TrEMBL record:
<feature type="domain" description="Response regulatory">
    <location>
        <begin position="4"/>
        <end position="117"/>
    </location>
</feature>
<dbReference type="InterPro" id="IPR011006">
    <property type="entry name" value="CheY-like_superfamily"/>
</dbReference>
<dbReference type="Pfam" id="PF04397">
    <property type="entry name" value="LytTR"/>
</dbReference>
<dbReference type="InterPro" id="IPR007492">
    <property type="entry name" value="LytTR_DNA-bd_dom"/>
</dbReference>
<protein>
    <submittedName>
        <fullName>Response regulator transcription factor</fullName>
    </submittedName>
</protein>
<dbReference type="InterPro" id="IPR001789">
    <property type="entry name" value="Sig_transdc_resp-reg_receiver"/>
</dbReference>
<feature type="modified residue" description="4-aspartylphosphate">
    <location>
        <position position="56"/>
    </location>
</feature>
<dbReference type="InterPro" id="IPR046947">
    <property type="entry name" value="LytR-like"/>
</dbReference>
<dbReference type="Pfam" id="PF00072">
    <property type="entry name" value="Response_reg"/>
</dbReference>
<feature type="domain" description="HTH LytTR-type">
    <location>
        <begin position="142"/>
        <end position="242"/>
    </location>
</feature>
<keyword id="KW-0597">Phosphoprotein</keyword>
Length: 242
């Protein structure tokens, strides 16, 4: 898939290096422009349809997160390019499809572009279609701890789980159950079933996903009508089911 890209980097030398690397090693990427500041980047993004933005974290008068927060409905994927690894967790949890450290490793750059290309191809194919994961029926039970003992649920009854600090909301068709366990606990407990961690806050029963929407990180609609956010870093794992 051909990708239209923007390079956002305040240092001219770094922009030139990345532009040369992309031109030489990423034949499916066309760099439409460059920006040296948050304002330049936003103006360009608002006037061009993009698939990919290479984005430095630290820039004058703001940072990458400030820019992305100003673009809540973006449809492009973001690859962070930075010398500061302290941003990695926040970037991958919320904003970025991939994270590259300076100096740029060419093999990692190619992996980043391939990752984005695969995501964009798949989500374009799936956008607003009725989805069928074609997975085997979910058979099994899980025990839900409660103050006076435990409750037994059929795994197939669970539409999704939502994190609530150190608690988890288990959402069934017409009700929810609040459990004093973390979402990580249920991610591990349901690892043998078709449940996908699509966001730091959501674990979804893939058999209940009926629609995928492109957007900031994308979102899915489950069969009870609820729409759930998908983190950029979780897209590939989810889309692989379909």
């Amino acid at each position: 898939m051909k990708l239209k890209a923007l390079i956002v980097e305040d240092e001219a030398n770094s922009r030139e290096i990345l532009q040369n690397y992309v031109s030489k090693y990423c034949e499916n990427v066309t760099v439409l422009g460059e920006a040296a500041s948050i304002k330049e980047a936003r103006d360009f993004i608002e006037n061009n349809a993009l698939d990919l933005v290479f984005l430095d974290v630290e820039m004058p008068y703001g940072n990458a997160f400030d820019l992305l927060d100003q673009l809540p409905d973006r449809e492009f994927e973001t690859v962070f390019v930075t010398a500061y690894n302290q941003y990695a967790m926040d970037a991958l949890n919320n904003h970025a499809a991939y994270y590259l450290m300076k100096p740029i490793n060419i093999d990692e750059l190619i992996k980043a572009v391939d990752y984005v290309s695969e995501i964009k191809t798949k989500e374009t194919d799936l956008e607003n279609k009725v989805l069928n994961a074609q997975l085997p029926g979910v058979e099994g039970k899980i025990t839900i701890p409660q103050q006076d003992g435990f409750q037994v649920l059929n795994v197939s009854e669970i539409f999704y789980c939502k994190a609530d600090d150190n608690y988890t909301e288990i959402h069934l068709e017409n009700k929810k159950i609040l459990v004093s366990k973390t979402l990580k606990y249920f991610e591990e407990a349901l690892s043998g079933f078709p449940f996908a961690r699509i966001h730091k806050s959501y674990l979804v029963n893939v058999n209940e996903v009926v629609k995928y929407k492109k957007g900031k990180g994308g979102s899915v609609v489950v069969s009870n009508g609820r729409e759930l956010l998908v983190s950029a870093s979780k897209k590939k794992e989810l889309l692989a089911y379909f």
